[in-house]
Write a structure and sequence with these properties.
Number of strands: 0
Order of helices and strands: HHHH
Radius of gyration: 13 Å
Number of domains: 1
Helix content: 55-70%
Structural class: mainly alpha
């Protein structure tokens, strides 16, 4: 298995365990849209901490940042184009689903 794939699998497993353990208390005092954004933001932050932006295009990172800055309320417009972006998007999708987020919440769309 390639190093990038191993790192992404490790990230996925780490986030899935942390999200599951933190889920009951994390939601207190937040609306569901706020909680969804917080959970997705944690997945993005963890991904960036573990692998950085190497191989990710500027638009991919900027659109994620804009999505999170909007409270995850903007229309999905993050389009993974490179192999590294697709791998990152796959990890984020699985991490989000493991954190209890609906698939319709995710910011990915290629128009």
């Amino acid at each position: 298995m390639r190093p990038l794939a191993l790192a992404l699998v490790a990230l996925l497993l780490a986030f899935a365990g942390a999200a599951h353990a933190a889920a009951p208390s994390a939601r207190e005092g937040r609306s569901w849209p706020e909680e969804k954004c917080a959970r997705y933001g944690r997945a993005w932050t963890e991904l960036m901490a573990r692998r950085g932006v190497e191989g990710l295009g500027r638009a991919f990172v900027e659109r994620h940042d804009a999505f999170l800055a909007s409270g995850c309320a903007t229309r999905p417009d993050v389009c993974p184009r490179s192999e590294a972006e697709l791998a990152a998007a796959n990890v984020l999708v699985i991490a989000a689903l493991n954190a209890g987020l609906p698939s319709t919440f995710l910011p990915f769309s290629c128009r």
